[in-house]
Design a protein that fits this description.
This protein is of the alpha/beta class. Helices cover about 50% and strands about 15% of the residues.
Length: about 900
């Protein structure tokens, strides 16, 4: 039998408890039986396994294969430098794994510091005495005392209530506080008024409840478990990295096998060909790509942290940039979750006296209290109290008696002394108040409330409702001579109608501009709320979310709709979902993802958590958000500012563009690293480049300039274009042609020019065979190595934009690139001219004029790329 249907005595029998509470011994026994009263995070992967994941993703596996090949080559042909190569690649894998793990672990710990789901201390009856204890020690059967400002520590069946009202927004999404009663009720427990659920807040009154569910058995716990069963899937960037590494692996593997065969048929020994194949594979594997992507994402997450956006996983930074739909809650996300008086309406027209009486009633029918200088009470009553105090009449009356709000009558009345006279003041739902009014206040005084005036009042009420305001009606009458009425029925009759007060939960001031930016960026925003349709539509109009007649889907209709009907509704340009539940929101997200959308979901309540986790990017509110929502989200807005999402999306788009920039930059040097090996195999020229030198380029000299590309500011107009199509990829034909062919061949020409220049200067002629350790071979390979690096200096400026000229962006506007180039050149000097660098990298000092010869080559690459950009811009126009 459902607990909500039981009487008070039946509740005690069912839970084996009494009005005096449990004994201390019984409470300890039940604690052992039911466990601590806390929401357990769904058990995820251990730290060890999560750390191991950093070593087993696809690109890491590709690098492990390169390590294995290096060690095999060293074993079979010692002294070729392959051992050092293998160790260096292992170091790259380890450094990247540690760095990525630390970044994500720090974000997780920062999130844990914000957890404040359940109240820390609660009051219960134990052994017939009131006792204060930790909320974690509450057990089923405990008698829990709750009052204004408390949070329910468990699911409670209310057995005593005094004007008890709770805010269910964290659980249902509805901002309006609801009253709690003690009477048994039929129907679903979730909608029973004799239940206070764990984590919901008492906004007024006090009560006593019997705990019947704790921990994971509460409604909070069930939703937390539902959240844990939702699989988020790979992010767009993770999918792209997997695709990229497969492409790279295929290119490297096929190239290695093909040129091993070419070397074999050209008469080279097996080990020469093996060394050559490993060199080709290493040349085609961008060892620096993984740490560069990781560091770029980490820098992006740090910049976003300064904007009050906490990123839990690095790949979420880029995911934001691909978002095409944002599903957002209303209360506390688009709005301030604070009721304010928006409009007043009387049947007197503009009348100071009528308004004075209206706010007198609003101040009198009000249980707001001031404690230590702070106002406390129901959000609606707080708004009325502030408005009344603004008219100078909040303390103008003395209360003699109260008839509290009644769910059936939907009215509250008080008896007050105002200016020496005794008055009955009533507030409530317009239909309810009008039903007990016989007169109304007009310009000429009090007149009978005939049908014409009643219709005028209803029209005014409907006009307020059409604006989505929550409307309350007020009435009064002077108490009968000879004393106060003894009953509510005597008091609430023959009242004089005063007018209406319309309240709203105002939008956050920055939301309208943020929505406008989203619209410009081609991002749809869908409101999914537990509130009523009129309120939701009105707020949507006010913030610019809708302009025409939106498609409104209410919860009851939503349940009856097929997936096809919902897809039709979701395809509408403006759609709002109201009166929604957690499963409803999750269904919307699933359908949007099936339609190819990349979905972001914002929210703060427990009800949002499953959808937050299922979405491509879940965004929780840091201040008002529940622990479950923060746990499920990918990003937490520390300031609860919806506008921060727009900045984060812009940052995500910029990061995706920047990743493409440094992939282009990194891939451009793969061609000048691979072609010298091809020439070495085909034409028996001296070895133009050693594997150690390739590694020095990939992991040392070019990494810092690549990081500079990773922090390029967003290009102009990045938020004026629609989200990239889902079928678009990080690596496409245009990028490969630009990097491998256009920039790569120009770089190759510069590097080979330096190589043959040094050989020719040293007296080498075509067909001469020189050993690998010959001084001239070392100088020539050093020139090739230096040529690739110098060409990459020109390339880094060329890659700062795929369309915009570098002269507009400026040569000195990115200090990290300039610093990276300076360090890159310093490393070159050490590698080329220091004895230790010569030993490790098989280099030899070369004349300074080689440096000067390479500068025009780098400028030629830069200007060739400027010509390509000009043609692209011209074609675009």
């Amino acid at each position: 039998m459902k607990i909500n249907t039981l009487t008070k005595e039946e509740v005690f029998r069912s839970l084996v408890t009494t009005e005096q509470g449990l004994t201390a011994h019984e409470a300890e026994r039940r604690l052992l039986e039911f466990g601590l009263n806390r929401i357990e995070a769904v058990k995820g992967r251990s730290l060890v396994l999560r750390f191991a994941d950093q070593f087993t993703h696809f690109l890491a596996i590709l690098l492990w294969i390169a390590v294995a090949l290096s060690f095999v080559s060293e074993y079979l042909s010692p002294g070729e430098g392959m051992l050092a190569l293998g160790i260096a690649i292992i170091a790259v894998i380890c450094i990247n794994a540690v760095f990525t793990f630390i970044q994500e672990y720090r974000a997780e710990k920062a999130l844990e510091a914000m957890k404040k789901l359940l109240p820390f201390r609660v009051r219960v009856l134990r052994d017939a005495r009131e006792t204060e204890l930790s909320a974690e020690r509450v057990v089923p059967g405990d008698i829990v005392l709750i009052a204004e400002g408390d949070k329910a520590p468990a699911d409670l069946r209310i057995i005593e209530a005094s004007d008890l009202r709770v805010n269910m927004a964290a659980l249902t999404g509805e901002s309006e506080a609801v009253s709690r009663t003690t009477e048994p009720s039929d129907g679903d427990v979730m909608h029973s008024r004799n239940i206070a659920f764990a984590g919901t807040t008492v906004v007024s009154g006090s009560g006593i409840g019997v705990a019947f569910a704790t921990g994971m058995s509460t409604e909070f716990g069930r939703i937390a478990h539902l959240t844990g069963t939702v699989s988020p899937g790979l992010t767009p960037l993770q999918k792209e990295i997997v695709r990229l590494t497969r492409i790279v692996a295929a290119i490297a593997g096929v190239t290695g096998v093909v040129f091993f065969a070419i070397g074999w048929f050209s008469g080279r020994t097996f080990w020469e060909n093996a060394l050559f194949a490993v060199g080709i594979i290493v040349a085609n594997v961008p060892e620096g790509l993984l740490p560069t992507v990781t560091l770029a994402l980490a820098m992006g997450s740090q910049r976003m942290a300064k904007r009050n956006a906490l990123i839990k996983t690095l790949t979420s930074v880029e995911t934001l940039g691909s978002v095409s739909v944002i599903c957002t809650d209303k209360t506390g996300t688009l709005t301030q979750n604070e009721m304010t008086v928006k409009k007043i309406g009387t049947l007197c027209g503009p009348s100071a006296e009528a308004e004075q009486w209206l706010f007198t009633a609003a101040g009198a029918c009000n249980n707001t209290r001031e404690v230590d200088g702070e106002l406390r009470g129901d959000p609606t009553e707080l708004a009325l109290f502030r408005a009344a105090r603004g008219h100078g009449i909040a303390a103008a009356s003395v209360r003699l008696k109260e008839f509290s709000f009644d769910d059936e009558r939907k009215r509250m009345s008080t008896i007050n002394v105002v200016d020496g006279a005794v008055y009955i003041m009533t507030k409530g739902a317009p239909e309810s108040v009008l039903s007990v009014c016989a007169r109304c206040r007009r310009e000429v005084g009090e007149v009978p409330l005939d049908e014409a005036l009643r219709q005028e009042a209803i029209a005014l009420y409907q006009a307020f409702m059409d604006q989505g305001l929550r409307v309350l009606a007020f009435a009064y009458r002077e108490a009968p001579a000879g004393g106060q009425p003894l009953s509510r029925e005597e008091a609430e009759q023959e009242l004089v109608f005063l007018g209406f007060i319309g309240l709203e939960d105002p939008p956050r001031p920055e939301v309208a501009a943020a929505i406008k930016k989203c619209r410009t960026a081609g991002i749809r925003i869908i409101m999914i709320t537990g509130d009523a349709s009129r309120t939701a539509v009105a707020i949507a109009r006010e913030i610019g979310l809708v302009s025409g007649q939106p498609t409104v889907v209410e919860g009851e209709a939503f349940v009856r709709m097929s997936d096809g009907e919902l897809r039709t509704a979701l395809a509408q340009p403006e759609v709002i979902f109201t009166r929604m539940t957690p499963k409803h929101k999750l269904r919307v997200v699933n359908l949007l993802k099936e339609e190819g959308e990349r979905v972001a979901v914002t929210g703060d309540g427990v009800n949002d958590a499953p959808a937050l986790k299922r979405a491509d990017i879940g965004i929780a509110m840091g201040r008002s958000g529940t622990d479950v929502a923060k746990e499920a989200a990918d990003m937490v807005l520390l300031d609860d500012n919806f506008a921060t999402i727009v900045s984060a999306i812009e940052e995500g788009r910029a990061i995706f563009d920047n990743i493409k920039k440094f992939i282009t930059y990194i891939f451009a040097h793969l061609t000048p690293e691979a072609i010298p090996y091809i020439l070495y195999a085909l034409f028996r020229i001296p070895l133009p480049l050693t594997v150690a030198q390739i590694l020095a380029i990939d992991l040392g000299t070019e990494t810092l300039p690549a990081l500079g590309l990773g922090v390029e500011p967003p290009e102009a107009g990045i938020m004026n274009i629609p989200p990239r199509p889902k079928q678009s990829t990080l690596i496409d034909a245009a990028l490969l042609l630009r990097s491998y062919v256009f920039l790569g061949l120009i770089s190759t020409a510069g590097a080979l020019f330096a190589y043959f220049y040094v050989l020719n200067l040293g007296g080498w002629r075509w067909g001469m065979i020189l050993p690998l350790d010959h001084p001239l071979v070392r100088q020539a390979s050093t020139a090739t190595f230096l040529g690739i690096v110098i060409m990459q200096v020109g390339n880094v400026f060329a890659c700062r934009s795929s369309r915009e000229t570098v002269f507009r962006r400026g040569f000195f506007s990115n200090r990290l690139i300039l610093g990276g180039i300076a360090i890159e050149l310093l490393l070159q000097v050490l590698i080329v001219y220091h004895p230790l660098g010569n030993k490790i990298f098989s280099t030899a000092p070369i004349p300074l004029d080689i440096w000067l010869l390479l500068v025009p080559c780098a400028l030629a690459l830069l200007f060739a790329e400027e010509g390509r950009k000009y043609l692209v811009r011209r074609r675009g126009r």
